[in-house]
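Friendly challenge for the regulars: who can give me the structure tokens for this chain first? No prize, just bragging rights.
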Amino acid sequence: MASTAAELATRRWTSAVPFNQQDFERLRSQCLQTGSLFCDPTFPADWDSLGYDQLGRRSSKTIGVEWKRPLELCSDPQFIIDGAKRTDICQGELGDCWLLAAIASLTLDPQILNRVVPPGQSFSSQYAGIFHFQLWQYGRWVDVVVDDRLPTRDGKLLFVHSAEGGEFWSALLEKAYAKVNSSYEALTGGLTIEGFEDFTGGISESYDLKEAPPFLFNIMRKALRLGSLLGCSIDISSSKETEAITGQKLVRGHAYSITAAQQVHHFGSPVELLRIRNPWGHVEWTGAWSDDSKEWNEVQPEEKKKLDHSADDGEFWMSYADFLRQFSRLDICNLTPDTLSGGEVGRWIFSEFEGAWRIGSTAGGCRNYPATFCSNPQFFIRLKDVDDDPHDGEDGCSALIGLMQKDVRRERRFGRDLNTIGFAIYEVPDEYEGRGDARLGPEVLLRRTPVARSQNFVNLREVCGRFKLPPGDYVIVPSTFEPDRRGSFILRVFTEKQAHSSPLGEDVDADIQQPDVGHDDVDPHFKHLFVQISGNDSHISASELQKILDRVVARRSDVKTDGFSLQTCSNIISLMDMDGGRKLGLLEFQRLWLKIQKYLEIFRSHDPDGSGTMSSHAMRAALAEAGVQVNSVVLQEIVARYSDASFSVDFDSFVCCLIRLQLLFKMFRTLDKKNQGKIQLDLQQWLCLAIN
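First reply, four minutes later:
Bragging rights claimed.
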């Protein structure tokens, strides 16, 4: 465990990026050169940094609040005194006990603490009123700079503080966490594992020990070998029970860490044991397998020596059976692979993807909403090799999958709350083999049962699950419970063995098949109609095309339309015109007519209720059937441009979109002469392209 934590503190040390582009060393040097104390312009000492409602400008809870530096509060302030301890973390007038419990967990291991709280900071050497901390935020480590102006009332810290009163690392860390979440008030309410993940970059699992799954002991033992951090606690029924000590010296409502899982032989029979640590460094379990219990008398001396069973350091052994009876909850925080290296520690294989649910395009809701479910983002994962030493004795590929909502605390001030989220896992059918990154369609997502799913849809920051699947190809579909719920997310996948994973349907391409038409293929009746419309020049202009198309679709009761615009008809001619005459001849018009008929078939297939319009959620699939593949970013722009206020698309908008996309692909490929997937335009080219 110690070596794992050391890797966390050192290997990732240089990977943090400056939050708000504020470089700590540069800012401190500037202040030292000018002899000034740092004042943070991005998180100022004013009302907005306190909050927006209960801690807002007009709230009674903020009356008398003053921002003061530690030098104004005591004569000899210290950053950390004799190492960080749990007594450094006393809750103030903010409902962030979940965060304080997570901060307290940092004191269990100095190496992890040094990753989050960089050492060498003080109020004497190179003091400039500036401090910094490193936090994991949605897929990356950020280095967060804060000034040391803290909210006070009557000369005392308003929020977290140390019992001694002259130690300030915990108050400044709380301020850094408030800064990345936009205000102190945004920290109200939460789960400890949220903070624990933000202090480690890991992915957490929680278990209710009253409903412990089979083989949980083996899961714990393997998690420890993989460098995971394990914690446990005993539930309380009221605040009066907080840190109450039981008859066998266990502390209720208190965070313990689990540091080992071993088997010993007692009277020749194997017994499963856990080594548990009380961060107080004293008050140890006095039941079976405690330091001086009689059970150790029947264990071979070499086993006792190996387990160091009687060290007087707050650590104690307990049988797994007693653990299930005495404790209420187990949390496992699995660390990312780059925190682990060499030695006895294994490695998780780790993939991470960013995604978004956007109204009208990618926010499809859960499977209860079949009309929109298939529009959700999809992520592919290939599991090839089974686990070594499976925890349940059965071959398979273990995977930890976590779906995390982004920036929900920052957006609370705007009235946004957590979405209710979950995910489903589908096996890729054989018929999809060789189809590249093709998304699963309704024939799979709506007609087949997922092989696994998150346990429930929950309104938490993250939903996480542990799964064991046979080797094969799978697709993960993350979603909100209801459709058209906006949000951004990251999807994290941990596997024990190498796995390939990627987003699906995120390529942009077009394969437009032009109808092959010759003079002999033109129907005489169609030719006669063309001559009537085109007049003496035997060509159709944009305005003539507009009249034809409007006349045709007006006769169709199965489509709704506001009519084709002149711009759309001009785009059609630009796309179909082969001789540069800005008009359509007979064969060009025949090809267009065949295209329109094909587009009408596609449109009607995505209008299952016969409304004459199709949902914007169907646009990606409909475009793909027409030969155009777009990613989520392009799709969002398409929906914004071509759907109405109710996110419906009529036929002329659908045709206009398709023609415009084909024209843009045609222009791009003409300019991309080296087929590099990128073009460079001068001003004249840009203007001509934009005007077109």
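Residues 564 and 652 are 6 Å apart (CA to CA). Residues 226-334 form a domain with the Cathepsin B; Chain A fold (CATH 3.90.70.10). Your move, everyone else.
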